[in-house]
Structures are given as structure tokens and as C-alpha cells.
Amino acid sequence: MSRFIDAGAKFAGWVGLGMALVVVIAFELIIPIQTIVFLIAPLMGLVIGVYANVRAERWRPRGRVLANSAYAGLVTGIGLAVLYVVIRLVFIYGDTGALPDGTRLDCSSGPDCIYQRYVAVGQADELASIGITDGASLEAAAWRELMVTGAGLVVLTLAGAVVGGLGRSFASPPKGSVPLPKPVSPTAS
Q1: Are 164 and 67 in contact (CB under 8 A)?
Q2: Cβ atoms of residues 19 and 44 within 8 Å
Q3: Is the pTM above the cut of 0.85?
């Protein structure tokens, strides 16, 4: 794989996983506003796309710069999506039906309890209008939504990384910077 991407890009992929973990925990658990994760995803990609090439000390060739950025962005995006989906699933399957007043809904733990919560607040007709009529149909709808949102996070992060790589590939190295040594061909003696 080092033939297509630099070691610095591989390291940036690990950094991107750490960044994804922090963002998902911060905006799904600490401050539960999931929309922020989607707004931050392209910015995370942009940062990690540039960082992959800074870490690799790469400015040219443009194809290699973009490959570094795309790799780090893809790793970061997949990590972000997996963490986002796993935490959402914990909330979906972890609902026991417990209410703040100490009582409990009459439901099976998981999606059925979520459905019963919506019914209890009078949203059964609204859910039925989109095909959700019980816990099983709510579960299927949740899985469809999570697959789409997970894929969306990967695409947003990857797009940001490619933009970061493009920016880096069109920029010039600062004056006085030391160029990378030329690779030695294995056949040259």
C-alpha cells in the first residue's frame, strides 16, 4: 500500500479515528445534537486531508497528494460513521420503557419501547403516515436511516479530505523548505 500512499497518510488515518471518536462522543453523548456531527464531518475531512500530506511532507505529485488525502479521509469517515451508528443503536436497543416518574411503559425493550413512547405522546397517526405502525416497522425504519446517515458521513468526510488535498496540491512549498528525496529504484545499482 505504501506504493500508493505515504506513511504519513497512514498515521493521519489513525489521528482521524481519534478525532472521530472525540466528535461522536462530544455531540452524541455529552451535547446530544447529532446534526453537529454532520456539519463537522466535511471540516474534519478537510483538516485530515491536509494533515495527511503535512505529515507525509508531500506537495507533489498531485495524484499522490490526493491519494494520501482520500485514504485519511476514508478512514476517518468510516470511523465516524461506525461510531455514530453504534451509539445510535445503543439508544435504540437500550430503551427499557422506564419513565421519569418511576413507572414503565408496557413494551419489549428496544424499538417497541421507542414506538410506545411516540404513541404515548400522540404521534401514532404521524408515524402511521410514514409506514411505522409498531416496534418492528420502527426498527426497520431506524436501520434504513442509520445506513443512509452512516454513508452520508463517509461521503461528507471524504469530500472534505479531497478538497483539503486539492488545496495542498495547488499550493507551493514554503521558501526554504527541504524537498523530499527522490525514491530510489529497486533496479538501480
Answers
A1: no
A2: yes
A3: no
